[in-house]
Amino acid sequence: MQKNRIMRLKRPEQKAEIQILHLSLQGLLPEDQLLVVNQQTRTLSLLSAAPQIIMEQLLSENEMRMIVPILESYPHYCLYEVLLAHISSNIVTQATIERCRLRLQEAQRRGAWPQELRPIRRALSSLRNKLHAFHLEISNVRERGCSLTNLAPSSFSEHLQ
Length: 161
What we know:
Blueprint: E1 4-9, E2 18-23, E3 33-38, E4 43-48, E5 53-58, H1 61-73, E6 78-79, H2 80-88, H3 94-110, H4 113-132, E7 136-141, E8 145-150, H5 153-160
Antiparallel strand pairs: 1-2, 2-3, 3-4, 4-5, 6-8, 7-8
């Protein structure tokens, strides 16, 4: 079972909450490590149980918009309409996702599927490079979405311990 904790911090001088995701990502990370996503600072960190930072990457705004729904969908894949909603809207609701689903269906009918997915592909390309440092990969599920996978499953635990 995936251990997923969401911490919401609110400082007195701030009006907005800081959202920090703590993810165990069973099957992708060693049991004593957590992937931590700080959405305010747009950082992705790998922590050991000590806790000690093993690795950290700064993400662009679009990379952050892609990684959060992918991580929230893990171990399943994240639908392209969800990714499109996150990259094209500041506030994502079921209605936004439905509009993006219809937009993608229409693009598929017109033969414009690649053009409609271009912003997603661009953000995923740069995100993949940063995830490789964590030995993680984003795999495409043809015409469905993306999922988080291991880059090198057998050597990952040995490499980071």
